[in-house]
Amino acid sequence: MADKEGLKVPKNYHVDIPFANQGSFHVKGANNLEWGMKKHLSNIFCPKSGNTVMFAFDHGYFMGSTAGLERLDIIVPKLMPHVDVLMGTRGALRTCISPDCGKSIALRTSSGSSMMNDDLSHEIVAVDIEDAIRMNADCMAVQTFIGADGQLTSIDNLSKTINAGLRYSVPTMGVVAVGKDMERTSRFFKLATRIVAEMGAHIIKTYYCEDFEEIVAACPVPIVVAGGKKLPEEEALTLAYKSIAGGARGLDMGRNIFQSNHPVEMAQAIAKIVHEGFTDREAWQFFQDAINK
User: Fold this and answer.
1) 206 in the Ramachandran plot: left (φ > 0), alpha (ψ -120 to 50) or beta?
2) How does DSSP assign 47-113, residue by residue?
């Protein structure tokens, strides 16, 4: 057992020094991976900007019908031209998304909880690797609870998914979930993102918080920031800008897109930050101009 006594507080993150094993490949931590993995990751992360705009519409797997996502067949096609990756369940993808969409797929493979449960941390691996391959998924997304009652099962789900994916060169995205007894602080996210990366996940989806640059520096794979709860559009664009400026390689703004009164224009504004280097002020001006046309 590791000795936890007398541990020093980590502090040397060297946020000003780029990741050392970048090589010639544009995705952090993937320089030594095989061709198939790199091909999937290149579908997710734009080779030119190195970044990605994900659009998650998998909320129904635990929330059922969700405000803004009542009709996936209507809202998702409208947004597809402005995002890089569709993150959804196999049921939603097969029924509502045309296979000629041309978008990268992040397939939700963990499930088992619902909003009717007091604790959402008890999930299972609900989709096997064979079905992920049949759907030509570019990565498998697994909810990963650190600091929750279901942590051990959650890590087991993540490990099994990573192991299966490695056999067939399909990356895994660990979606960091905050246990109900954990605070959304840099101390927690440094712990959670590093654990999930060291388990072998190729992408980490997590939240923005204070000292985000240190979280990014300590994580050897790319981080995609989740938008979380619905914010006013201007605030959401500021969150997006701070995330990319802090080192995130992508954004998944979910509710901040599909619950906006102007979801298409919001997706376009976020893409400007992610791929074209817009500031939050520039993106907000673009958004206002777009909705006032």
Assistant:
1) beta
2) TTTS-EEEEE--THHHHSS-TT-S-HHHHHHHHGGG-SEEEE-HHHHHHHS-TT---EEEEE-EE--
Q: Among residues 283, 291, 264, 290, which one has the least CA distance to residue 55?
A: 264
Judge whether residue 7 has pLDDT over 80. Answer: no
Identify the pLDDT of residue 10. Answer: 76
CB neighbours (10 Å) of residue 53?
26
As a whole number of Å, the CA-based R_g of the chain is 18
- Cα 207 to Cα 145: distance, rounded to the nearest angstrom: 13
Q: What is the largest CA-CA distance in the chain?
A: 63
Helices (H), the chain: 35-44, 60-63, 72-79, 90-96, 129-134, 151-168, 186-198, 212-218, 233-245, 254-258, 263-276, 280-291
Residue 72 near residue 57, CB atoms below 8 Å: yes
Task: Please say whether the beta carbons of 275 and 269 come within 8 A.
Answer: no
pLDDT on residue 5: 58
pLDDT of 272: 98
Tens of pLDDT, residue by residue over 102-144, are 999 999 999 987 666 656 778 899 999 999 999 999 999 999 9
* Residue 285 in this model has a pLDDT that exceeds 90: yes
- Active-site residues: which are they? 205
Is 80 exceeded by the pLDDT of residue 183? no
Local confidence band at 2 (pLDDT 50, 70, 90 cut-offs) = low
83: left (phi over 0), alpha (psi -120 to 50) or beta: beta
Domains identified in the chain and CATH numbers: 35-291 (3.20.20.70)
Name the residue among 283, 290, 248 with its Cα closest to residue 269.
283
- With b for 16 or more beta-carbon neighbours within 10 A and e for fewer, the 234-259 pattern comes to eebbbbbbebbebbbbbbbbbbbbbb
pLDDT at position 61 is: 80
